[in-house]
Specification:
heterodimer, A: 103 residues, mainly alpha, 4 helices, B: 217 residues, 2 domains, cell membrane (chain B), transmembrane (chain B), membrane (chain B), Brnchd-chn_aa_trnsp_permease (chain B)
Chain lengths: 103, 217
């Protein structure tokens, strides 16, 4: 891995820590205002965009290689376990297992 | 420590899956562990797994993760008057203030045990347990992913599906009725970017869809 990536990790870690620590150390009373709508939607939007950016090329490659079966079954298993247990880790493991079994 | 156990147990599958997915894009187990220990944010690390192979510029990586981390400010604002601890203790606890730790600390501060504010040692134990589970779990996942890939060709192919499966789970987990329209818009923008051959614009373009949230609540 490149030095630039390690620098990015350190920067991302530091910025993440700042967002976590600043409110806890500030002395002003909380305003109690609800979060702005865009901030509430930002995380889900980024996740959806990544999901599409990761899944779409994968799906096209699977179709082109005529290996859509493991892709479809793995995706279905991941989605089903997520809706069932609400645990992205278990969903990932289920998706990989289903994909493996379907190869 | 004991309060951290449910969080730690809850983290293990996700950490394991994250480690396996990270090993699938070529990161070694020590690299995965160091990343988990430094960044300690499941959402940001999952984002990096997609951004690194896509060759996203480092500046854009930092900017997008910083924007996504802004939600932590809200956690701190909510917890600030509900938890105890000295300033150094709070500063240490903040390193582990993830989504799940926030939920646990909030539940403890408003639970049945009266209005006792969680103390500094309890908070640090909670954060430390979660951090250790996340870091060690991701190392184990990366090591298992590497071992499985060496085991057989079909296992190697299946491990390549870890990242897509992880994002299916994360996306479904983040879906809520209030954000359905912006999320659909983000997915559409990302799909358009990928299909038109501008895949590097998919994630930043999709992120901009959150600006539409104010009109669709």
């Amino acid at each position: 891995m490149s030095a630039a990536l390690w620098l990015a990790f350190a920067l991302i870690g530091a910025l993440t820590y700042l967002t976590r620590v600043l409110p806890l150390l500030s002395r002003r009373r909380g305003s109690g205002a609800p979060p702005p709508a865009w901030l509430d939607a930002l995380g889900p939007c980024i996740l959806a965009a990544i999901a599409v950016a990761v899944l779409l090329p994968e799906a096209r490659a699977a179709l082109a290689a005529d290996s859509w079966r493991p892709f479809a079954l793995g995706s279905a298993a991941a989605a089903a376990v997520m809706l069932w247990r609400r645990d992205a880790g278990l969903a990932t493991l289920a998706g990989v297992a289903a994909y493996w079994l379907a190869i | 420590m004991r309060a951290g156990l449910p969080v730690a147990l809850g983290y293990l599958p996700a950490a394991f899956a994250f480690g396996a997915a990270a090993s699938a894009i070529g990161l070694s187990a020590p690299e995965v562990g160091a990343m988990s220990a430094i960044v300690f944010s499941g959402a940001n690390q999952a984002f990096l797994l997609a951004a690194i192979p896509a060759g996203m510029p480092v500046v854009l990586m930092v900017a997008l993760t910083a924007a996504a981390s802004l939600r932590h400010l809200l956690y701190g604002l909510v917890l600030r008057d509900r938890i105890g601890g000295s300033r150094p203790q709070r500063a240490a606890f903040a390193y582990g203030l993830t989504d799940e730790v926030f939920a646990t600390a909030l539940a403890a501060s408003t639970g049945d045990h009266g209005k006792a504010r969680p103390g500094g040692r309890w908070l640090i134990g909670l954060a430390l347990t979660a951090w250790a589970a996340w870091s060690l779990g991701s190392v184990a996942g990366a090591a298992a992913g590497d071992a499985l890939r060496r085991l057989s060709e079909s296992a190697a192919a299946a491990m390549g599906f870890a990242l897509p499966a992880l994002f299916i789970g994360l996306m479904l987990g983040a879906l809520r009725r209030e954000v359905a329209v912006p999320v659909a818009l983000a997915a559409a923008i990302a799909a358009l970017a990928v299909l038109s051959g501008h895949a590097q614009l998919a994630i930043p373009g999709g992120a901009l869809a959150c600006l539409s949230a104010r009109w669709f609540r």
